[in-house]
Amino acid sequence: METVSRIHASNLVAFAKDKPAVLVLSADLTSSCEADLFRDTFPDRFYTMGMAEQNMMGFAGGLAREGFEPYLHTFAVFLTRRVFDQVAMSVAYPNLPVRMVGFLPGLTTPGGVTHQAIDDVALMRVLPNMTILESGDATDVESVLDVAHAIPGPVYIRQLRGLLPRLFPKNEPMAFNHARILSQGDDVALLTSGITTQYAMEAVTRLQAGGVSVSHLHVSTLKPFTDPQVLEVLKSARHGVVTVENHSIIGGLGSAVAEVMAENGVGTRLRRLGIQDVYAHGASREYLLAEYGLDTSAIEGAVFELLGRGEELERRSDSKVRAVVEDKNRVEDL
Amino acid sequence: MQDVKAESSWRPVALKVARGIRRRVLEHTISNNGGYLSQACSSAEILATLYTRVMNLGPSEAPLVPPPFPGVPALNNPHSFTGAGYNGPKGPQWDRFFFSPVHYALVLYSLLIEVGRLGEDGLGQFNKDGSTVELIGAEHSPGHEVTAGSLAQCISQAGGVALARRIRREPGKVWVFLSDGEFQEGQTWEAINALRYHGLDNVGIYVDANGQQCDGKMEEVGLIEPLSERLRAFGAVVREVPGHDLDALANAGLEPWTGGPLVVVARTNPCNGLDLLDERAPKLHYVRFKSTEETDRYRKALDELKKGGE
Fold it and tell me: Which CATH number is A3-165 given?
């Protein structure tokens, strides 16, 4: 698998080159959010707003009212939770084309509870007019700005930085409100978003080798959540549905799927993998994904549980997988 | 509409407008048994001076009778609008007005009537269901351009507009009307800081420093003083003036400044022009009369105001 580095930095410059209305506003995390190349390339379109996110959000609203298209760069926690009322009143209510590019989603940072955005999707989902996009690989990061640019209202982007895998072909860009179908099958429907897709793809490969048939969708538009492909795979899943998100299981992808299932009378079981309504702490990504039940083993375990094939897991030595089957409240025990 | 901008004619007009604001707000407070009355008393001269002398606004582009509520801004609602049309057209040379403490909405509506931008019966729709003439103004309300009721958010939005106008090299200014209570919000200071850092001297801010807030006297609720010194320390150009003195208010905004935002700290009296109101101090935020006897006394005061205005 190819890995690439600092895709957002170069893509932002290429994207903005022929769009003079695009401005970048940063709240003292310019390099950390890969906006430094833009700053150096288009200094007249870059505005440092200091560590003052509330004011930055208002400035962005004012600029957008005047026909500019501001791209705000800072960590996701500071773009959503810290400035929730400002997002709602200065940007979302007037339906302004402000693009909030939030970095360090969920457990992608060892920065601990202050830096881990585990509730950002939930917060942005309850705001009318808001669109939510999430990148899952280098190709998504390269194309998410084009998707956002085409939306005539506010957009929150859960963005990735640094070294990234390329899971999806470079010539197949992210499409608005259109999930990527990564595999098709009718035992279980698996819907994943963000970085969890990479782990889910590995899980699917192993499940398929074990004779399990899985429909796997990579969801990059979390709001609106009206992609007809989603309902189709939910309906076709004979044994149940698994969602995986790098976020609280409340208010994010899992909740959105539950709402679609309930509204449409899709009568099958749903297992939501994600952060189980607890706070996280500072540690490496791999450690945290295992601890909070988001890694490949956890995903396999959830599928096996729906299939009623927990005994197969017993034969394996992977204690984490067994934990998924035996104890739904495993996070508290680990 | 008469030319209220002419150097020779503005003072009597401003005086008449300020009196008209007090009269209309008092009248309304009596007939509805409730209203933001002290805010009219403190800010009447500030707003009258802004509209008749300081701001360079073109004629209103909005209907004299406010249109009904068109629905909230949304992708599927092409009909939503702001109330900015009452402040004239947008254009490089024109000034823009941003109204932050939107619980003063009744004061602004009354002013718009006084300066001929809103019809005489514009207040007929005040606080009526389906109307844009809302109790707490939002961006669809006459004279409003942003949704500012969550205090301290207006100044940042106006800052963004000012930055956009500077990028486009527009000569017009951005005026913001603030209440002093908003200096208890951190965002106000973030905004002053940013306006100064980015050298946005196309922003002029008038503060109605009436020393009152919802819970009572500001000094008993939260500290903002010494306000002018604090603002100067943040790099703002500060002019502190007696807030009912038309000439002082006008000169503070007309005298050029550079380097960052201008803040005119207008020291006002929340009972100015209506001494009776002082009996209710320190609870002046929202006035609701307690007895018919009290209402009658305010009716008498209204009669006096009406006589004085003629």
Answer: 3.40.50.970
